[in-house]
Amino acid sequence: MNEKKDKKPTKKAPIAPVLKCLELFKTVTYPIARLSSVRTTAQIIQSEHGMRFVTRKNKVTKELEITRIK
Questions:
Q1: Residue 4: inside a domain, yes or no?
Q2: How far apart are the C-alpha atoms of 52 and 46, rounded to whole Å?
Q3: Which residues are CB-neighbours of 8 under 8 A, at least 6 positions away?
């Protein structure tokens, strides 16, 4: 059975607006499949707005946690 047909479409949370509004030392979680998009967006926000982020991969839950540190 084709797994792609069985999956329901899920609404993706926007990355840039969420990271820009993230309060200091708060964490948001994204699916690990969006790893490159989240890291790229975080780098752009860091260079444009002076904010700093730390990312952590949780391989068990297959999630990416991103925390604002500055």
A1: no
A2: 6
A3: none
Q: Is residue 58 part of a domain?
A: yes
Using an 8 Å Cβ cutoff, are 46 and 22 in contact? no
Per-residue pLDDT of the chain (70 residues; tens, 9 = 90+): 455 555 555 678 899 999 999 999 999 999 999 999 999 999 999 999 999 999 999 999 999 999 999 9
Strands (E), the chain: 27-31, 53-58, 63-68
Say if CB 16 and CB 55 are below 8 A apart: no
Domain with 51, as residue range(s), is 14-68
54 within a domain of the structure (yes/no): yes
